[in-house]
Every structure is written in C-alpha cells, then in structure tokens.
Amino acid sequence: MKQVLGIFILIIISFSVFAQTDTLKEHIVLEKIISIPSKTYSFKTIDSINIIGCNNSTIDNVLSKNSGIFVKQYGSGNLATISIRGAGANQTQIYWNDIPINSATLGMTDLSLFPSNYYNKIIIQTGGAGLSSGFGGIGGSLRLFSSNPKDDINSISFNQTIGSFGKLQSSIDANYNVKNMASITGYSVSNSKNNFLFYDTSTPEESYERRENASVKRINLYHNSSINFNNYNSLNLVLNYTDNYRQIPSIIGITSGGEYQIDKQFRSKLNYKLIGNNWIHNINLALTNEIMNYIDTLANINSYIEVDSKHLNYNTARYFSKNKAKLQIYLMNRLDIANSDYYINKAKQLISSAYVKWEQTKSAFIYHIAFRQELINNKFAPISPSIGIKKFFFDDKFSSSINASKSSRYPSLNDMFWVPGGNLDLLPEIGFEIENSNSLNFIKKLPITIITYYGITDNLIQWTPQTSGLWSPQNVKQVRRYGLETSAKISRKINSYNIFLTLQYNYNISSASKSELSNDASIGKQLMYIPLHQAHLNISISKKNLSFYYHQTLTGRVYIDNNNNFYLPYYIPADIGFDWKMKTISDITIGARVNNLYNENYQVISYRPMPRINFLLNLKININRKNK
Predict the structure, then answer these.
(1) What stretch of H or E contains 226?
(2) Could you give the C-alpha distances from 573 to 491, 567, 570, 596, 598, in angstroms and in order?
(3) Which residue has the higher pLDDT, 431 or 67?
C-alpha cells in the first residue's frame, strides 16, 4: 500500500506542473463530460427531489418507491437488501461516495442502516455498467453520494418527524463556509417502537396481533467539508458514523426470544482532485470500521464481528475534444481485516484492480471498450471485459445500444474462514451478460425506454449440507437470468400545475440451469424471493409552494422454496403525501404522508409482516443567510 501511495503522489506532482492552463469554465464543462456514466450502458439516477420526498426515511425505502428494483425487507427497521436483475444481494455492489462498502464477511450491505437525508444522489448501474465502479457486481451496482456543502450561504436546518408506532426522529444540519472552505455537519436521532398490528395466519383463528420486540434506535453523525485551493486543486473530507440498536422480532407464530443486534459503522474518505489540460485526477483514501454484535440470550448466542477496511484508489480521466473521446483509468486497492468469534484467526484479504475504458462518439453512434483486471491476495483473476455500441436514428429521436460484459464475484470471508464449514477452495462466481437498450423520444416530454437482457452466472456459491452433517459453501449451480425492463415518463404543465408521471415495469426470470447437486429439483425453477413481475407508478403534482405525490408498487408472487411449491402472493402497497413550503423569516416546510394507503396485509419475507396503514408528519425549518 505504501509503494502504491508513493506512485500516486509522483503521478500527481508530475501532472500538476502542466495543470494550470485551462479556465474555470472549461474545468466545469470538462468535469461534467467526464463524470457522466458510460452512455452505451443503461443506468438510473434518483435525484435529491425524490430522496427528500421520502421524509427522513432510509435508503431501502427510497429505492422501493423510486428505483424499479426489488428491495428485500425483513420487516420495518430490520435487514434490507436489494436484487438487480435477479442477482443476489451479495452479487450487487454498494458504493459510498465511490468507495465499495459491501461487508467483507457477509458480502452484502444492509441498506436500512443508511438514513436518506444525508444523500443527494443515487445512481443504479445495471449489469456490466457496474464494472466501471468496481468488481463483484454481477447484477449491477448502487452508488450513494453524500450531500455536498453549499458555498454561497450559511444555513441551519431543524427537522422533526413523528409517526405511527412510536416513530420519532429529530435532526439538525448546519452549512457554513469561510473564504474557500465550505462544510456541512448533520446529526440525527431516531426511535421507533414498531409495535404495529399484523394479521397472524399461524393460528386457526387468524387474528390480529401486535408486533413485539421490534423497536429501533439509531444515531447518525455526518460531516462533509471541502477546500478549493484554486481553480485546479481541491480537497474533500467526508465522515459518517452510525450507531444502530434494533430488536429482532421472531417470525409469526414463534414467541420472541428477546434477540437484538447492535451495528456501529464509521466511514471516512479523503479526496484530492486535480484538473488541467483536459485531465481530471482523483486520489481517494478511505478508512471504514464495521461492528456487528448479535445477541440471543435464550440460545446463549453472542456473535461479534468487526471489520477494518482500508482503501486507496486513483481515478484519472481525459477528454480528447478533437476525437470526442474519453479515456478512463481506475486503480483500486482494498485491504480487509476481520475479527470474528467464528474465525480461528483474524482473516485478511487484499484486493487490487485496474480498470481501463475508452469511449468515443462518432457522427451517429457511441462505442466503448473496457477491461478490468483483479488481483486477489496476489493471485490474478480472469480479465473482465466490456464492450458496447449505441446508435442514433431519426434525428436522435430513437437510439439503440448493445452491450456485452463479463464480471466476477469472489467468496466472502465467511464463505472461506467460518468455523465450522468454511471452504478455502471455492471458485469465484463468473457472470456473463448481454443487454439491448432502446430509447424512444418521438413524443415531446414522453421518453420511453425498453431494455432486454440475458445473463448466465457460473459457479454459484451456496451453503449445502455435507456427509459429515456440517453445512459448507460449495460451487453448485449455474443460473440463467433474462428479462425485460420498461419505463415511461410524462411531464406536463397545465395552467400553473407541474405534473410528472413515471411508469415502470420489469419482467425477470432467474432459474438454475445446471446443478452439481444430485436430484436437484430446482432446475428450471424461479429462484427464491425473485419476483417475475414488478411495476411502479409515481405521480407528482406541484403548484408554487405546494406539492402532492402518490407512489404505488406492484410486486408479483415470490417463491419461498427452491422447488416453487410455496409462494407469497403479490402485493400492491401505495403511499400518498404532500409538502407545503412557507416563506417567512425562515423557510418552513410542513409535510404529511400516509403509508400503505389501502391498509394491505403483506409480507416481503415469509412470516415477517410489514406495517399496515400508518402516518408520518414532518416539520422542517431552514434559516439561510446569503454570503456577501
């Protein structure tokens, strides 16, 4: 790591000598051009307006209402993961300000631990598009970007949310700046009893019962500051600390044993940016610490896992204006050190990777070629290539792109070192995917997107019982994934009303096509908890300082066993709400939301009920002072 850091410093020093010939305006244009994700791949952006509209929620709830991807929630306030194009949660990579944060031990990320009010942009990259951000995203990747400080105002904001089932959340944020430095600091505390009524189907009477042992308490601290030394050099520091306590309710029909879990997460990233001569250079140094402590007093379980991760990344890109081309080089280094009660010794893993992409725009088409090479504990992995082309027709009113990619995911530390059962001989999962994306803009303010894809995942890792009676992870299956993704957006202004409507529909088949298990009845069957059908409807209507919104999601049946004998029925929860902004001495926003508007009884995970109809009230006071 020290040698790599030295190389990065030499590179920056050498480029800084030639980095001061462009103007500030040219820098802004250059950064905008280079920061746009590959145009040949499909991606979706959730902006700050949609995030703020979720009223101090968590990232999993933002995604369930805005993304069109499947969010697997184990109940209100409990574990929440995502599935993109039928891939598992550990095959979807999560990035915090471009730093990979999937747990080194579990291989996945719990999105219920991320408060939405500290993020202003979310990018969802599907399929091979995730290769540009890192490795491991066979299904795709999710990129979370923290809110940046404003350099033209000093402000302080107070936010109070109260709701059903004992929900109470308070937060305060301060934005301040001095000369060439701007900072934002936020603190929030949230409590919820989660003692909602649910429909108990485990007894012959099928009565309504109240959820027990389900409370959640969370503290979050956030800081983001930046220093602009001049038009060419800047330094940015982002800090985030979360302390989360949650009780873990039992499944329906089982008496609660008083289980609970404590999660503590600290993340920090220092970024140095240099711009000049059509180049942008970024060095990122990040340190993260995660603690997970699960306690079940009745079963005498006290499981403690702590992971320290160090990241050193260098990302450089150049725009060739004459050729209308972009060159990107991305070097990543990650060292994970994990300590667990179920490891013999501390587990270590060093991952390095290099990514190179060339993207060029011709007269009527765009193409890209990219490669990623990984080094896992000093062993080279197979190269992951990506290629794509996008063609424009009818004066850019119709475009079609075709992409192909190969990606890989390596076993988690638990897969390799867990005692008993860990397997050091596991092979990496290998994913292949081809995608066709079509955009139609024949009708003004009515863009339509139609995407089809086909993918295969080899060497799927699954924990299976062995002849010794122990469970151990093995490479046992090949999975085939294919489907359809469609969306349409309508934006209209009628008199003084601004109307926005978004429709999304996804169809996905994910099934095992081969298996190393004898008499495996899951061949050709839909994978567990992967819906075939999903649909989303978002409506937003605003007039001056008043806005109204309506969200509804349809999730088709999901199978809860490998043989597809049992399933959970479809569910279509809806939310409705409004925000009213008043201009006085300060900006005051009053909001209200009704969740699960039609009082639907449903479960995302079998025997773990979701809340019925519930209410939220929100008050935000923002005091601003413009800089002179």
Answers:
(1) strand 216-228
(2) 24, 18, 10, 5, 7
(3) 431
Rounded Cα distance, 122 and 51, in Å: 9
The reported pLDDT for the residue numbered 166 is 93
Residue labelled with tokens 């930046």: 226
Which residues are CB-neighbours of 88 under 8 A, at least 6 positions away? 108, 139
**Residues 607-628: tens digit of each pLDDT:** 999 999 999 999 999 988 776 5
| Secondary structure letter of residue 251 according to DSSP | P
The string of pLDDT tens digits covering residues 96-152 is 999 999 999 999 999 999 999 889 999 999 988 888 888 888 999 999 999 888 877
DSSP letters of 409-446? EPPPHHHHH-TTT--TTPPPEEEEEEEEEEEE--STT-
* Yes or no: domain 2-626 corresponds to CATH 2.30.30.40: no
Sketch the domain layout of the chain as residue ranges. Answer: 2-626
Tokens of 607: 């025997």
Give just the sign of the alpha carbon dihedral 466, 472, 478, 484. Answer: positive
Reduced to 3 states, what is the DSSP secondary structure of residue 11? helix
* DSSP per-residue string spanning 535-580: EEEEEEEEETTEEEEEEEEEE--EESSTTS--EEPPB--EEEEEEE
pLDDT-derived band of residue 7, with 50, 70 and 90 as boundaries? Answer: very low
Question: Which helix or strand (DSSP H or E) is residue 15 part of?
Answer: helix 2-16
